[in-house]
């Protein structure tokens, strides 16, 4: 009797530990916040694709810890339920930590469907003319960034 | 015996109305002037309370959206266990206050936190003052430690661009700091806030952190941009927290001021009416005694 009880306890404890472990392996605590809105907060998602200056990459649970700087572009979030959400970001950072938590912090972010394509094209021509008329290095650099962002905006809106 | 006392009393009584008359007239006027000014003050404090209540509502709504940015930016420093290098004591303190006063002790508590740190060691600490209030408080004793100060804070809600400009100015300043702290008031509820700090690290202290090796594919350029952005987001977050606690604290202190003014008005009205009655009574006595003397 005593032996059986100890066995059963052993079994149950093992079952518990495996579930915890599996939970850890498949879960990703995903936070996506921008200056104007919170999109996800410590939510579990299947995959996240981000554009970064060191190349675009996808993040799955248990990704190796890393840091990256966001490039203007579209972040795609594959939710557990199967929907894909596309969100445009202007700039920001991606942090993937050891505990499989992912933070995307963006300066400005909006869902792609909210982008007005004609306004984006207008912005692009405006920033291009700004670039050509830039007087000093700083103004030129600022205009270059504006062109980059609006190019990405136009691409995202299409 | 009695007669002697009686004469003394009449002498006093004779003296008193004259004094009373002079003082009574003057006080009536003075009291009404004071009453009016206290009433005006109450109007001002009441409208300031209304204004800051509206601003507070907005600041709190904004703050809810920003909290996860602040927590997210802080997360990396905690996860990577970055600590200030022991051999580089240069520190930077960023005081998050605003230009406006009349909001309780929000600004002084930030300044006090920095002052205690400066009291321990004022050689290796430099200050960046955000908002005129912290500059006014800190420049009296530690004017030489201030390297930067920003104003025009508090009139409008802080934006990310403000924070980015500030972060840029801090990074471009020629002061080489190893670590630092952003001192701000964390908003807890309408009636309470807490002075807290957020960490700031230089590129060197992050690169030399022992736990950084677990992070994959990093080069200096990425870390540098990452730190710039994370400083901006931390500043943005702390400015939002500071603005929210400032407005809520102004709201409560203006509410208290209105209550106190109300109390003063009650007391002054009472004194005013009493004095007015005394003047009327005295005039009546004068008329009656004048008539009976005829």
From TrEMBL, chain A:
Database matches in CDD domains: F1-ATPase_delta (cd12152)
Entry's localization field: Mitochondrion inner membrane
Pfam families the record matches: ATP-synt_DE_N, ATPD_C_metazoa
GO MF annotations, alphabetized: proton-transporting ATP synthase activity, rotational mechanism
Keywords linked to the UniProt accession: Acetylation, ATP synthesis, CF(1), Hydrogen ion transport, Ion transport, Membrane, Mitochondrion, Mitochondrion inner membrane, Transit peptide, Transport
Coiled-coil blocks: none
InterPro entries hit by this protein: ATP_F1_dsu/esu_C_sf, ATP_synth_F1_dsu/esu, ATP_synth_F1_dsu/esu_N, ATPD_C_metazoa, ATPsynth_dsu/esu_N
Main location: mitochondrion
Record-annotated ATP synthase F1 complex delta/epsilon subunit N-terminal domain positions: 29-109
A GO CC annotation given for this chain: mitochondrial inner membrane
Domain called F1F0-ATP synthase delta subunit C-terminal: residue spans: 116-156
Family of this protein: Belongs to the ATPase epsilon chain family.
Assembly, per entry: Component of the ATP synthase complex composed at least of ATP5F1A/subunit alpha, ATP5F1B/subunit beta, ATP5MC1/subunit c (homooctomer), MT-ATP6/subunit a, MT-ATP8/subunit 8, ATP5ME/subunit e, ATP5MF/subunit f, ATP5MG/subunit g, ATP5MK/subunit k, ATP5MJ/subunit j, ATP5F1C/subunit gamma, ATP5F1D/subunit delta, ATP5F1E/subunit epsilon, ATP5PF/subunit F6, ATP5PB/subunit b, ATP5PD/subunit d, ATP5PO/subunit OSCP.
Function recorded in the entry: Subunit delta, of the mitochondrial membrane ATP synthase complex (F(1)F(0) ATP synthase or Complex V) that produces ATP from ADP in the presence of a proton gradient across the membrane which is generated by electron transport complexes of the respiratory chain. ATP synthase complex consist of a soluble F(1) head domain - the catalytic core - and a membrane F(1) domain - the membrane proton channel. These two domains are linked by a central stalk rotating inside the F(1) region and a stationary peripheral stalk.
Record-given protein name: ATP synthase F(1) complex subunit delta, mitochondrial
Record organism: Dendroctonus ponderosae
Lineage: Eukaryota, Metazoa, Ecdysozoa, Arthropoda, Hexapoda
This protein's encoding gene: 109546054
From TrEMBL, chain B:
GO molecular-function terms, A-Z: proton-transporting ATP synthase activity, rotational mechanism
Entry annotated with the keyword Membrane: yes
InterPro entries the record matches: ATP_synth_F1_ATPase_gsu, ATP_synth_F1_gsu, ATP_synth_F1_gsu_CS
Protein name: ATP synthase subunit gamma
Family statement drawn from the similarity comment of this UniProt entry: Belongs to the ATPase gamma chain family.
Subunit and interaction comment: F-type ATPases have 2 components, CF(1) - the catalytic core - and CF(0) - the membrane proton channel. CF(1) and CF(0) have multiple subunits.
Pfam family, one: ATP-synt
UniProt xrefs under CDD domains: F1-ATPase_gamma
Major subcellular location class: mitochondrion
Membrane topology category: Peripheral membrane protein
Cited Gene3D superfamilies: 3.40.1380.10, ATP synthase, gamma subunit, helix hairpin domain
Source organism superkingdom: Eukaryota
Compartment(s) of residence: Mitochondrion inner membrane
GO CC term (a single one): mitochondrial inner membrane
Keyword Transport: yes
Keyword line: ATP synthesis, CF(1), Hydrogen ion transport, Ion transport, Membrane, Mitochondrion, Mitochondrion inner membrane, Transport
């Amino acid at each position: 009797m005593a032996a059986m009880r100890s066995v059963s306890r052993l079994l149950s404890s093992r079952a518990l530990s495996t579930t915890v472990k599996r939970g850890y392996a498949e879960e990703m605590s995903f936070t996506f916040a921008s200056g104007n809105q919170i999109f996800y907060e410590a939510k579990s998602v299947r995959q996240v694709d981000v554009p970064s200056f060191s190349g675009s990459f996808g993040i799955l649970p248990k990704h190796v810890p890393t840091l990256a700087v966001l490039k203007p572009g579209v972040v795609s979030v594959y939710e557990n339920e199967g929907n894909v959400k596309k969100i445009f970001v202007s700039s920001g950072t991606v942090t993937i930590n050891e505990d499989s938590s992912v933070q995307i912090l963006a300066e400005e972010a909006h869902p792609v469907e909210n982008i007005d394509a004609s306004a984006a094209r207008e912005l692009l021509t405006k920033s291009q003319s700004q670039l050509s008329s830039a007087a000093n290095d700083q103004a030129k650099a600022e205009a270059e960034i504006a062109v980059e962002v609006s190019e990405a905006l136009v691409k995202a809106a299409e | 015996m009695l007669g002697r006392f009686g004469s003394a009393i009449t002498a006093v009584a004779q003296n008193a109305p004259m004094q009373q008359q002079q003082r009574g007239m003057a006080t009536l006027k003075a009291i009404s002037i004071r009453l009016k000014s206290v009433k005006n003050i109450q109007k001002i404090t009441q409208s300031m309370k209304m204004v800051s209540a509206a601003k507070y509502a907005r600041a709190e709504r904004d703050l809810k959206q920003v909290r996860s940015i602040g927590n997210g930016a802080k997360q990396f420093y905690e996860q990577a266990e970055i600590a200030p290098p022991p051999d580089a004591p240069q520190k930077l303190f960023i005081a998050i206050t605003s230009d406006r006063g009349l909001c309780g002790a929000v600004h002084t508590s930030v300044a006090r936190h920095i002052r205690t740190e400066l009291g321990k060691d004022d050689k290796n600490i430099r200050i960046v003052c955000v908002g005129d209030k912290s500059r006014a408080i800190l420049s009296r004793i530690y004017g030489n430690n201030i390297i930067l100060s920003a104003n025009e804070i508090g009139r409008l809600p802080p934006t990310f661009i403000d924070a980015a400009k500030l972060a840029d100015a801090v990074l471009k300043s020629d002061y080489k700091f190893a670590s630092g702290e952003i001192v701000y008031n964390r908003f807890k509820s309408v009636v309470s806030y807490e002075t807290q700090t957020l960490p700031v690290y230089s590129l060197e202290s992050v690169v030399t952190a022992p736990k950084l090796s677990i992070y994959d594919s990093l080069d200096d350029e990425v870390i540098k941009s990452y730190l710039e952005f994370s400083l901006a987001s931390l500043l943005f977050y702390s400015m939002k927290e500071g603005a929210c606690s400032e407005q809520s604290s102004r709201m409560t202190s203006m509410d208290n001021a209105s209550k106190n003014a109300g109390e003063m008005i009650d007391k002054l009205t009472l004194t005013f009416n009493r004095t007015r009655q005394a003047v009327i009574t005295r005039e009546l006595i004068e008329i009656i005694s004048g008539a009976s003397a005829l």
